[in-house]
């Protein structure tokens, strides 16, 4: 008896799932075709000038950054030991100036 009830419940569940699935799908023939929004004419959009100005400014910033990065030492040419030594020398010189001792 239990197996018959289980089969009936499973069948009812499958039927409900299939009904819900086919009911949610809209018919293919009645679906409206997507309509693309009309593109504004280039000269009539008041935001176009502002956008062009902002793009030109961002290009200038990129050029400035590239110039700045060209002046930096590349990672493969950097010498951390020399940098460390230079920092220590400058630190000792600053300490001597603060203490009032003459430079050697």
Give an overview of the whole structure.
With 104 residues, the chain is an all-alpha fold. The protein is built from three helices and no strands. The mean pLDDT is 80.
SSE layout and pairing:
Elements lengths: L1 H23 L22 H24 L9 H20 L5
| N-to-C order of helices and strands | HHH
What oligomeric assembly is this protein in? Answer: single chain
Main pleated-sheet profile: none
Structural class: mainly alpha
Features:
single chain; 104 residues; mainly alpha; 3 helices
Short description:
By secondary structure, the protein is mostly helical. The protein has helices at residues 2-24, 47-70, 80-99. It is elongated, with a radius of gyration of 37 Å.
């Amino acid at each position: 008896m239990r197996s018959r009830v289980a089969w009936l419940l499973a069948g009812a569940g499958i039927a409900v799932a299939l009904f819900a699935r086919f009911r949610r799908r809209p018919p293919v023939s009645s679906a409206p075709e997507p309509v693309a929004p009309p593109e504004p004419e280039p000269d009539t959009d008041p935001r176009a000038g502002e956008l062009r100005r902002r793009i030109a400014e961002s290009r200038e910033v990129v050029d400035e950054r590239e110039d700045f990065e060209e002046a930096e030492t590349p990672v493969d040419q950097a010498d951390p030991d020399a940098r460390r030594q230079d920092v220590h020398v400058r630190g000792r010189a600053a300490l001597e100036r603060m203490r009032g001792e003459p430079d050697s």
